[in-house]
User: Fold these one by one.
Assistant:
Number 1:
Amino acid sequence: MPTPTLAAFPKLEQDYPREVIERVWQSAQTVTGNDPDLWRKDERGAWIHRASYRDRHNEFGWEIADCAFTQGSFGIAALRAMQWQNHLDFLMASRQSVVTADGLRNARRLL
C-alpha cells in the first residue's frame, strides 16, 4: 500500500484567532537555552517553531490539537500546540509511533 501524501489528509483544523494561537503557543514546553519566542516542544517531545504554525511542509510545523475528549477539559484549557505529524496521529488515534526530538531534529519513533 503506498504511503499517503500530505494532500491526502484533509484540513483537520479550524481557524483560531491570533490571541488563541498565542495562548496555545505559550502553553507549549520551553527548553532551556532556546528562545521560547521561537522554539518549544510539544507534549510528545517534538520541536515546534513559532513561525511554522500550520506548515505541514516543515518538520517543525505545528497545529492546535483540541484535547477536550481526552483531557476532560474544555475551551482554551483543552487546546495543545502539537507538531503536525503528532497532531494527525492524535486525530487518527494512532498509538503506534510518535514524532519526538532527536537532538536538534525531529524523528519518528515506534512505540
Number 2:
Amino acid sequence: MKKLIYNIMLLVSTLAVAQENNNGITLGAYIPAQAEGIPAYAHNMLKNKLAQVITQNGISDNVYNSRFVITPNITVLSKNITGTAPTMIALTLDLTLYIGDGVAGNLFSSQSISLKGVGTNENKAYMSALKKIKPKNPEIQSFISKGKEKIIDYYNTNCSIMIKKAQTLEAQNAFGEALILMTNVPEVSTCFNTIKSKIKPLYTKTINRDCKVKLNEASSIWAANQDIDAANLAGEILSSIEPSASCFGQVKTLYSKIATRVKELGDRDWKYDLKVLEVQANTLEAAREIAIVRAKNQPQHVSYNIRGWY
C-alpha cells in the first residue's frame, strides 16, 4: 500500500488500509435486540466473528453508522444435557446471516448455517458453536459476494441523488458531512467515476474549516492560562490539524510559542508533535481518513430497519 500522507492513529490507519484493499465497499456488523438472549461472552464472540466474515471477504468493517449491515438471527434447534461428569450442555444452532440496506430496510442476501457446540454451561456451549463460523466457507463467500453486488448497484442507481445531497450539504457549509457521503462511494462502482473529481475540493474545504476551528480553540485555551495543563490541551488539538490546511502556518507559530513556554516551565518533555506532510499526497486516502475520523466522532445512534428480513 502507498505510504499514507500523515502520521495517524492506528485505528484510523487500519480502517483506511481495509478500505483501500476492498475498493471502498463498507459494511457494519449489527446485532439486533432479538439476539439479546445470547449469553454475554457468546454475544461478543458473535460480533467478532461477524467482523471476520466482513474483513476476510474483502469488505471494510465500518462500525461508524454504516448504511449497509450484516446481521444475524440465531434459533436454538436443540439443547441437550449429558449424563456425563461433569455435566455438559450440547447445543445445535441455526445461524442465519443477512446483508441489506439497514436504512431503507431492503434485504440483499441471506445464508443459513447449522452450528453445534458443547460446553460445561450454556455460555460455553454457545461459544463452542460460534467458533465454528468459518469466514471462508464457500456458502458464506457466495452470500457476501451477492451482498457486494447489491451494495455496488445501490451506489450506481442512486448516484445522482447522493451528488445532490452532497451539494446541499456543501452549500450549508457542512463540508465534512458531504465528504463522508462522497468517500463512501466504492471505487468499483460506476458512480465513483462521476464523483471522484468532487472529493479533492471537499477535502480541502473540510481541512481548512477544521484548521480554523481548532486553531481558535487552541489559541483560546492558551491565552486563558499558559501553564502545562493548558499546553497539553492546546497541544492535543494542534497535533490533530492536517499539515496541508491553509492556516497551518499559524498553527506552527502557536505550537512554537507553547513549546518555548513549556521549556520555561521547567524544561519538561512535551509529548505533542504536529502532523508532518509526507512524500506524495494521495487525496482519496487522505479524504477517507478525515471522513472516518469525523464519522467516528458523530453520535452512534443509528436505528436500523430490518423488519421482514426474518
Number 3:
Amino acid sequence: MFELIWRRIAGLEVGKDLAEVSYRVGVRRAEQGVSLSEVQAAANRDFQIVWEAMLAEADEDEAATLLHEAPAIWSIVDDHTQRITEAYRRRSSELDRLSGDRRREWFRRLLKCNGERPDVVQNAADVLQLPADGRFRVAIAHRDCAGRFRDARDALTALRWSCHYQEVEGGDLLVIQSTLEQDKRVMNCLSEIRCAIAPAAHGLDEVPRAVRIASDILAALPEDRDSPGLLEDAWLSVAATQAPLVTQALADRIQCALENVQDADVLIETARTFCEGDGTVSRTASELYCHRNTVLNRLERLRSLTGIDVRRPRDAASFLFAMSAGRPAGGIT
C-alpha cells in the first residue's frame, strides 16, 4: 500500500498488480466483516503514523519540502482511501445479495418440506440465524402495504429482534422471533397494516404451517380492513373460504326459504346481531332498539321459515357460515 502511495507521489510507474492494491484491500475487509468506518480510519491512521515518522526523521530542508507537498500527498492518500471505500461497498453489496439469495432459498426449502425434514430445518435455522427451537410469529401483508410492512420490520430489527423478511405468493412475509411477552410489541408495530398474523409457531418446523394459516387469513380479510387479522377473529371467514360449496349451499337454503318474505332482511339482521353478540336476547334487543319479545318473535319466525334456530349453538354456526357465503343471497351479505 505504501509503495503504491510513494510511487504516485514520485510520479513513478505503477504496475497493474500494485494499482489494484486499494481494490483488494476494500474487498478483503468487506469479506472479513470489518466495518467501513474502521477501514477508512485505518487507512488514514496508518499513513498518519508514517507521515509523522517521516517528519521526525527529516532535516529542516526535507521537512520544509514535505510540508510544501503535503496537500498533493494527502490528495493521493484520500484517493487511495476512496478506492478502498468503493471496492468495500461494491463487495458488501454483492455479499448482501448473495446472503439474501441464500436465506430466501433455504426458507423456500423449509416451506417445501413442510418442516418435516430435520436436516432442512437445522440448515435453514443456521442460514436464517434463527433458533430451530424458537417461538415465532408469522405475518403476511398484501403488496400494497409493503412499504409500511418493511417499516415495521425495520422497527423490530432496530430493537435487535431476529426477523426474516421475504416476498411470497400473495404478499410479503415476516417471520419474527417473539416471546409471549413480546407479542404485544409485535401487534403494536403492525397495528395499522392490513396483514394476517398466524398463531405462534413453536419451533422453526412449525413455521410452514403458520405461513399457510396466515395466507388463509389474509385471503379472507375484508378489503377495507386496515388492521391485522388474527385466526381468533377470522376463523369463520377462513373456514368458509376453505369450504365454499358447503357455505354457499347453506346460504342458498336460507335464500330459498326467505325468497318471498318481505321482512327477510329484518330477520337476518336480528339473527346476525344475536349470533355476533353475546348470544343473549336482552343484548340483541338493546343493540336493535326494540323489545326483547320482538327479538324472540323474530328468531322464532326465522326458525319456522328456515328450520334454523340460532339459539342453538349448532344452528348458530350454520347460520354464520351461510352469512360468509361468497355472494349475496336475498339480502344475505
Number 4:
Amino acid sequence: MIRTILVNAALLLGLASASAGCSRAQVVCDIICECEHCSDEDEIQTCEQFATRESVADAYDCGDAWATYTTCIEEQGKCDEKEARYSTINDNNNDVCEDEKNALDSCIDAASAHGGARF
C-alpha cells in the first residue's frame, strides 16, 4: 500500500512538472511542427529558435510581450494543409502578428544596452 502511494505521488509530481515546464515556445513549436510535419531535426531547430527567443524575452523582462506575440501566432496563424505550411500572413500578404512582434522587439531594444537582438 505504501508503495502504491509513493508511485502515485511520483506520477502526480511528474505530471505537475511536465505541465509547468511547457513553455510558450514549446506550444508554438508544437503547433508549427504539427502543421508542417517536421522531421526530428527540423523540430529540434524550430523549437530551439523559439526557446532562444523566449530566453531573450525573459532576460530583458519582456515576458508579457513574448506571451502576447506567441498567443497571436497560436490564435491567428493558419495551417495550409495542402502545402504543410504554418503562417501568420493573411490573404492580403500582411503579417497579422506584426504589431505584436514589433512590440516584443521594442521591449527588447529598450532593455538592451546594445539595441537588442533581431530575430
